[in-house]
Specification:
Helix content: 40-55%
Structural class: alpha/beta
Order of helices and strands: HHHEHHHHHHHHHHHHHHHHHEEEEEHHE
Largest sheet: 5 strands, mixed
Distance between the termini: 103 Å
Membrane topology: Multi-pass membrane protein
GO molecular function: glycosyltransferase activity
Strand order of the largest sheet: 3-2-5-7-6
Number of helices: 22
Subcellular location: Endoplasmic reticulum membrane
Family: Belongs to the glycosyltransferase 22 family.
Radius of gyration: 26 Å
Number of strands: 7
Strand content: 5-15%
InterPro entries: GPI_mannosylTrfase
């Protein structure tokens, strides 16, 4: 008879023995049948790549534009580099030079071949760049999921994968053309490399996230960078130094090429906002709870669970300290720091979005551990079984509410992107047409949606007294220009509004249920050529406008009409 080895129940001495320096999934408790909770190989690359690929493609093709900064500070300069037309903001004036052309040129590597391939179909170039952004997100997030699987097992990795795919925050941020999104990609990849025990590469990617992406995200990358330096100082230091210097030098020379003066946009931005007392409050301020409310809107229960990670840490210390704690610590550092700043925007939290998913997944995965008997951890009690049963239910609830949020935003606010696509059907207006936009300037989806027969996009005065973007002025030098009409005080400039409204061939406006008549209501002057519903957030109930609830979403919310109007010939 073949001999068998039986596992003995661990004695209290075994339980109190010091833990290994680094937890792996092999340290997890075994099931009664003798097998581990996870397969030996963990999650492979195929499943994360397929799942993320599908969701990021959906994001690239359906995502709305959430911030006018994305359009005027990134899409418009890219459009100018490709087609020699587009809007310029004061940050791109060579007098201030706050924006790096390195970030724009990086995306031009994809946009240039796409513009050659698609010719005059500029809208397709727009979506080609978005798909490229989605591809970066797929690769970096897949690496993070695989790293979590190899170190902590399939369950934590699977939960994280589901949240990376379906939470509203990740769905929208993953294909936004913003430096904070690029820092988010870098955060995913840097965290993955750290968990893969490659600290030098993790530091190099962190440097790219800061210099090529968003310089202020340096605070979010500090924990991984510092711990990597502690573990392998020489390799991590040299890797970070070489990658930082290479990117800074490249940025320096690109800034000179476009601004036509020796300057560093990275340094200018930091000096303006930190040492120079940057007046970001001119662009709006929010209270200290803004990011907590915003985090709940974009992640619902997932965000609350992520904040509870530190609370459960004493119970799961052996499992998650130090490595996962190092990876997740930027959540709390970043939210605390950003909440102290007067000017707040949703996109400022993008760098930590993947970490929120990991932290919430770790809390859900650890539910049973909160109820285990520390003297007999392998004998599951009723509470442990109930906690295990609740894990997929809580995850399912998070994903359902996330889909509800995503659906509401896409279907409630997609009209600005969709209405501009109707221009391709009205080229009979003739070359030299003028598009006029009033109060809806901040929802302008970029010049990629303006066909060649429209010669100009002009702003018309609807009461806004801040500084608006002006077209890049090739006469003054294009990207190297320092136009006199720009200022850094957000004060309206003479000439930013079109005075003669008779020049307008097309008009874009939002008609809401308000007592004030809109310009387009004059049907003797304008004809409506396209109109789409647009959610009126001011008079719609907060719950119903934020989350899609079947039947009630249409019944309880109030909608305006987003219109494209064409002047009626005399």
């Amino acid at each position: 008879m073949a001999s068998e080895t039986r596992q003995r129940r661990p004695s209290p001495t075994d339980l109190s023995s010091p833990p290994s320096s680094s937890y792996t999934k092999l340290d997890k408790p075994k099931r009664s049948g003798g097998g581990t909770d996870e397969a030996d190989g963990g999650l492979g690359w195929l499943l994360p790549l397929i799942c993320l690929g599908m969701l990021r493609y959906m994001s690239a093709t359906t995502n709305i534009i959430h911030d006018c900064d994305e359009v005027f500070n990134y899409w418009e300069p890219l459009h100018y580099l490709l087609y020699k037309s587009g809007f310029q903001t004061w940050e791109y004036s060579s007098e201030f030079a706050l924006r790096s052309y390195l970030y724009i040129v990086f995306h031009k590597l994809v946009a240039s071949p796409a513009s050659w391939w698609f010719g005059e179909e500029k809208v397709r170039v727009f979506y080609a760049v978005r798909i490229f952004l989605g591809l970066i997100s797929v690769l970096t997030d897949a690496a993070l999921v695989v790293a979590l699987s190899r170190k902590y097992g399939k369950r934590l990795a699977s939960y994280t994968l589901a949240m990376l795919c379906l939470t509203s925050g990740c769905f929208f941020a993953s294909t936004s053309f913003l430096p904070s999104s690029f820092s988010m990609y870098a955060m995913s990849l840097s965290s993955a490399l750290f968990l893969f025990e490659k600290p030098a590469m993790a530091v190099a990617v962190a440097a790219a996230g800061v210099i090529l992406g968003w310089p202020f995200s340096i605070l979010a990358f500090l924990p991984i960078t510092i711990y990597s330096l502690v573990k392998r100082f020489k390799q991590a230091f040299l890797s970070g130094l070489i990658s930082s210097l290479a990117l800074l030098v490249l940025s320096f020379f690109l800034d000179y090429y476009y601004y036509r003066k020796w300057t560093s946009s990275v340094l200018n931005l930091l000096v303006y906002n930190v040492l120079g007392g940057g007046e970001s409050h001119l662009y709006g301020t929010e209270g200290p709870l803004f990011y907590l409310r915003n985090g709940f809107n974009n992640f619902n229960l997932c965000f609350l669970l992520a904040l509870l990670f530190l609370v459960i840490l004493p119970v799961v210390k052996k499992k998650y300290v130090p490595d996962l704690l190092v990876v997740l610590s930027p959540i709390y550092i970043w939210i605390a720091f950003m909440s102290l700043q007067p000017h707040k925007e949703e996109r400022f939290l993008y760098p930590i979005y993947p970490l929120i998913c990991i932290a919430a997944s770790a809390v859900i995965e650890s539910f049973p551990d909160l109820f285990r008997d520390k003297h007999d951890p392998y004998n599951p009690s009723v509470l442990v079984k109930v906690a295990s049963f609740l894990r997929p239910i809580i995850l399912g609830l998070i994903l359902c509410v996330s889909h509800s949020r995503t659906f509401s935003l896409i279907h409630g606010y997609s009209a600005p992107l969709e209405i501009y696509k109707h221009f391709e059907h009205h080229d009979d207006a003739g070359t030299g047409s003028v598009l006029c936009v009033g109060s809806e300037w901040h929802r302008f989806p970029s010049s990629f949606f303006i066909p060649d027969y429209v010669a100009e996009v002009q702003w018309i005065d609807d009461g806004f007294r801040g500084l608006l973007p002006f077209p890049f002025n090739s006469t003054l030098g294009g990207t190297s220009a320092a136009p006199p009409y720009f200022n850094n005080k957000n004060k309206a400039s003479d000439g930013q509004y079109l005075q003669d409204l008779e020049k307008c061939t097309f008009l874009v406006e939002l008609q809401l249920q308000r007592p004030v008549l809109s310009r387009g209501s004059d049907l003797t002057t304008w004809e409506v050529v396209a109109a789409l519903p647009y959610l009126d957030r001011e008079i719609s109930p907060p719950l119903h406008r934020s989350f899609f609830i079947p039947h009630l979403w249409q019944q309880q919310n109030v909608f305006g009409l987003y219109k494209l109007l064409k002047r009626i010939p005399n």
